[in-house]
Please model this.
Amino acid sequence: MITSEAAATVLVYGFITSLVYALFAEGFSLIFGVARMIDAAYGMWYTAAAYMSFALVTVYNIPSLVTFFATIAALFAAGFVYYWAVLRRIKDHIEMIMTTFLIALVIQNLIVLLFTNFPWSTPVVLPGSTLVFGVSVFNQQLAAAIAASTLLILLWLLIYRTKVGLAIRSVAQDLDAAVCVGIRPERTMALVLGLSTALAGLASLLVTPQSTITPVLGWPMLTLAFAIVVLGGLGDYRGTLLAAFVIGYVEIAVQNLVSPLYSGAASLITVLLTLWLRPKGIFGRSVE
Amino acid sequence: MMKRLDKIFVVTLLAVLAAMAVLPIALNLRFIIFILTLTNIFAMLAVSWNLLSGYMGLLSLGHSFFFAGGGYAAAILSISYGVPPVAAVFLGALVITGLGSLIGLPSLKLRGHFFALVTLIIPIIAYQVTNAIPQLGGHDGIFGIPSLFQSAEAFYLASLAAMAGSVMVSYLVMRSRLGIIFTCIKDDEIAAKAAGIDVPRYKLLGLAISIFIAGVAGAFYAYLNGVISPATYELEKASLPLLMTLLGGRATILGPVVGAYIIEILIETLKIEVLVRARLLIYSALALLIFMIFPSGIVGFLRRKVYGDTAG
Amino acid sequence: MEILRVEQLIKRFGGIVAVDNVSFTLQKNEILGIIGPNGAGKTTLFSLISGTEKPDSGKIYLNGEDITNTKPYHRALKGLVRTFQIVRPFKSLTVEQNLHAPLTVRKIHFNQEEAIQLLKKLGLIQKRNIPAAYLTHGEMKKLEVARGLIAKPRILMLDEPFGGLTVAEIGEVTSVLREYYEEGGTLVIIEHRLRELMKLIQRALVMDQGKLIFEGAPADVAKSEAVIKAYLGTDTVI
Model:
């Protein structure tokens, strides 16, 4: 029997987790759906953001807020350059996965070189905790949930209510037609990449304070993003959002009600089953 | 019939093999023997990877699953069922071939890049599941695996033979009608189907062969270390065959072996303090560089110089 | 003797009906041409027959056997072979190895002499050992035809085999196709190069907007009102 406390815990933590997952997955969804590219290094941007902010705050004593913006700006720039210098030149998808995978390894090993494998503890940004529906939640997590929802709304507005978003959606639907109406595809793509790496960084900065970081942090996140995007239907904002909640809740539910050991496996098995049984996902394009 | 150049090549190869079998033992180079054994094991893994990803074009980013799986299967057969070691190696490989094929089968129909991402996920799931199941030894894994051979030298020779064997298999497969069929599938699946090729069936066959070789390598690895744990699923082992093969040459028979030896030499020579931490960085950067400049790797580059063509 | 029968095939892509209730039969040892304006559904029809696409409804019979649900590779093995409008050579394989492929999968022994003869007739013999990636467009087109012929199919379906070829190259291809026909083969050809096609075919099907609008002798095609309307529009007066 599930106690009401356990249920409340799952509901609350599930909600927070899903929001952050959604933010992270939307970035991945943009790359897949709009730029039609695969970035096997997507998890590494998450990791890099975590380490960069860690270094800025603990080593150089830069105030948290400045660090936050500096890191996001750096991630955005990195995504832009990443597209321009690397991704743009690769046509074949398999070459792209290999190259991005190798780049991920290089970045990871760079981090290992600079920080070693030691699981550093990240500083606390918002101390204390609050009761939400009777469940004790760290203030950091609460802030993360609020920030994530705000950012998700902003992202939606950006994509569906601005000229930039229109350009992005046009490029996603029909590249040639977009070119014909004067949209510069490469600039839009670079923007999309910058946006997605920034989203990865945002998700990271919301979650990593008050925990520990290791260089391999990004890989489970990558697989999560992949799982969510596949489940939701590639490149679809709504689908990704919905799928993020499904996966987020599945993970938290398994973690609290069954065993922490199986939580990761549960969400990943979900994606395997989706790929095998219903490749179209909930909405959107097929992966076959 | 073999061209003269081919004949010289084969003779040289056999000579090298013979030298490798005899010299380390004759010169009593104990410390090198362990390293060479390990290199042979990874070379086998690289050959297995190359068969699937290089020749068939099914990029696998999670080959460590088959490697560790072979090790686990052999270990369990050995310890819990008292299967004699040599038999356990082959049976273990068969077990993981069956399991891996079952898991891999539904993924084969996916487009190449999705297949690759799925292979990235599988070791991560396996890690979690293995950690959680007590029969598999949980986090610490299974240890106390009885030794395969009495002496390190015998193990070394066995690993050399197994490695050479896997190269032979790779060669025979690619030179046979299977090789043409696999290349057709890699080049253009739709044209392959139009030519009468049952693509799913042949993909499964290629997968099975690749997994078997990886499984044998994994079993050897388990016996070499006396222990197998979830750590074997980790990214380093998953990416090493890729790095080795890219360095040595994708879609070449010897490329993976050459790459394996080069990387192992690098590992050993770079045992200077700072560089130990940097070593992964160095060979991933190296692989990236090679990949972008010499897409056909070292062996591919050499072959072009010698034969003047790029036909695989 | 009827070798292929297509009954009421329908294929929709979203809102568009690409193939609209098409039926026809093909006799053994005949040369059938399929023509029509761009977008008429000719290639889709081919894809339905070869199995690359599944019809929404309708049936296909090969030698009396219902192959509507048979997989593409299996149809090829049963002797229903097609070539592609946009060439699909096996780029890593040499020209000769490209011919090897359809034979090796059928476990037919590779008769090198025959292959060489075929390559000679198509003007590809010089590039025999060169990877297909390095051929010119015309040569790749000829390789498609060679690859289709090498396994001696029951029916060879060619999708725009003359596209982009010089007059000389078209001559090479036509002569091997004639030889195949004289040895008992059956051909179905989609083409836009009408002058060359009409000299080769015995019967013509004309498609427009997914429908079959004419079936008959090549000489009568130009006289059909339906055909004229399809190609030139309703305002034209001849």
Remarks:
- Chains A and C do not touch (no CB pair under 8 Å).
- Chain A has one domain: 4-277.
